[in-house]
Task: structure prediction
Amino acid sequence: MLTFIARRLLFLPIVLIGVTLMVFVVMSFLTPYQLVSAYIKSPEELKNQSLDDLVRKYGLDQPAHIRYINWVKNLLKGDLGYSKSANMRVTEAISKRFPATIELALFSIIPVIFGGIWLGTISAKHYNRPLDHISRTFAIIGWSLPDFVFGLIMLMIFYGVLGWFPPGRLSMWADTIVLTGDFVRYTGMNTVDAILNWRWDIFLDALRHLAAPIITLSYLWWAYLLRITRSSMLEVLNKDYVRTARAKGLGEKVVVNRHVRRNALIPVATVSGSMVLGLLGGVVIVETVFDYKGIGLLTATGAQQLDYTLILGTTLFYGLLLVVTNLIVDVLYAFIDPRVRLE
Amino acid sequence: MVIKKLLRNPLSMIGLVLLLGFVLIALFAPWIAPTLEEHKNEPYRVPRFGWGSSPSPPTKEHPMGLTQGKYDVFYGIIWGTRTAFQVGLIVTGLSCLLGVLIGSVSAYIGGKFDEVIMRFVDVFMSFPFLIAAIVITAVLGRGLDKVIIALVLFRWTGYARLIRGSVLQVKQDEYIMAARAGGVSHPAILVRHIIPNTIFPVLIQASMNMGSIVVTAATLSFLGLGAPEGYADWGQMISFARNWVLGSPGEPLKYWYTVVWPGAAIVLFVLSWNLIGDAFRDIMDPRIQA
Result:
């Protein structure tokens, strides 16, 4: 197990260098003048000096390899430049917005996983019978719904008509309380902070705002998990040990839940990495539609306002995040399925 | 055999019928929604009827109403079908070509070269597809051609990985060795013997990706990074609807037509590809055969 982790860790710096190189190549499509803001530390710098001076000061007229080294040095210091659209340093913007996205992702992943596996089990148990067709149709429709279309329709019905799930992260009254000094921000996640501050009214308000994005994200992802659970359950259902379990006279429920599903879930664990990838992409749209102020909305606004500093910063952040998540997923996977470690 | 199975499955049958409908709409667009005389040379420009920004409800002349900016929804949807097919086919075609080329050459040469190329692919794949596309279009500028470039850049890697796996298996086969012993050059072996024997799974995968490519392109338009304003494009139609989905006080569903029609068009289009793809996967999945 340890050698497996060590081997993966050895690859980590190579992938990280690759990720930074890639962002750097994208950056080189921009002119030095467009890039200047990626280097300055505050808007005051722009007032006192001409753009040409700044370009020279930060070495943007230097050859590519020197620029790359300088840029990486800045990165290692945790400096990603100043964002015009967010009006603050990029690192500051990311650290402010990231908890909101994590909160949304954590709350979504639970219904996605349990709902998807449940639907997949039903489908496999009733293979090629009406229940299989119904749950698959339900899921395929979800898979075919673009997130922005489904999100807008959710907004129209659950906010416009019913008034249940408003957009944003908190209602006005809750927002004012959260901003006062009495309310301590431990994590930046509204629900968690509300519990820690013992404010159940704020907790419920935060949940009310989370509901629509969570429903949107889960419905879109159920089909994916259904597909994988279903086909791997169908495979396991044909295995000899399942026949043995049935021959022993075990009830259908025990056979399906204990013997089949546990083994069928291994491929599901494999795809969790690519699911995190997709969820992070999907979050951009869902946050935009529901005006949920997380890192996705930050990226989308940055792109719309051509704030290159910001989008390069968030892209780099996404890249690093994914590299780390993939590592964790791989290690967990090796933990679940011992065969992986031996390869 | 595969076709027969597709036709027997009710779900894939629905998919095929839907897809056929869209093909017909795309082919006969000039007859279904004739271009106005004054826009004869730019049929993809959606005509506007009247001034002001608020949408107007459906009438006899405009069966699906006018969306924000008084753009005709019906016209946009009909011609948007062509845009969807164009983007889907071009992106799929180019990324397949690029992926097959890089993946097969990498696997055929093998060794260190293959290792380097595959790490390169890993780096491409470590960005979320949508985020990468957003960044590339933001850097390159607005326009459908930029959208296509961005999508191709981050789509070829999947095909490259797929074909690489098959080529690694096939290249050890006897008929390849026979061809080499017969003095056939390496490029000829690759093009005439290896690729024809490994391309089938790639083509299936590509057809299944059509739906998601069209959705991603529409998403970029929705964010205002895709087609220029007024271009017949479903994603843009929906982005027009964004400011109106909540209706007006007392009438929450007042502007339903701005989101429902373009939404239905894109959902049905993607659904048709996914229904076919889903049935395809079942047919091809060797584990379910038993």
